[in-house]
Amino acid sequence: MEGRFGIPEYIFDSYLMFRRKRTWWLVNKASQIELASQLKIWQVGLKAFQRVGQFVKPSTRMIQCFGHHATRARIAVTEAELSDLLAGNRIPTDMDLDPGYVILSLRKNLVLGLGLFLKGQIRSQISRKELRETMLQS
To answer: Residue 98 has what DSSP assignment?
Structure first.
């Protein structure tokens, strides 16, 4: 998160991370967690990351919770660009950034979720359901 998005590592100091196969989960640190450490954990807390091909993809909820801390790989889209993205189109950008995930926000202050930046274009990774829930909460 720090390398790609500029989200400082200390933001996650009060959390523990669990990994199961290709997915990582984030949970608040608590003394009771140690008691459960002997159990076989299937899932716990907030789904944080998942390996997708060559990338580790943060979950939409993870980005919505922590994306406001981002100082890099974040792009504010207009409502017209958002409509294009949700229609399945890609939007061009001249970001000086390695290929990978970017944080999409609306009006710079509402973090929507992720886009995938490849070959100078961004493709939405936001499901319509997630977007509806986010827009209703704002």
So the answer is: -
Place of tokens 């996650």: 12
Class of domain 2-137: alpha beta
pLDDT in tens, 83-118: 888 888 999 998 899 999 999 999 778 999 999 999
Distance CA 73, CA 95 (A): 8
More reliable by pLDDT, 77 or 136: 77
Pairing of strands 121-124, 91-92: antiparallel
Task: Please write down the HEC assignment for all residues of 16-68.
Answer: EEEEECCEEEEEECCHHHHHHCCCCCCCCCEEEEEEECCEEEECHHHHHHHHH
Strand order from edge to edge, sheet including 74-77: 74-77, 100-106, 110-118, 121-124, 91-92
**What's the rounded mean pLDDT across residues 6-24?**
90
Enumerate the domain spans of the chain. 2-137
- With a CB cutoff of 8 Å and minimum separation 6, the contacts of 14 are 28, 29
Residue with tokens 């409502």: 79
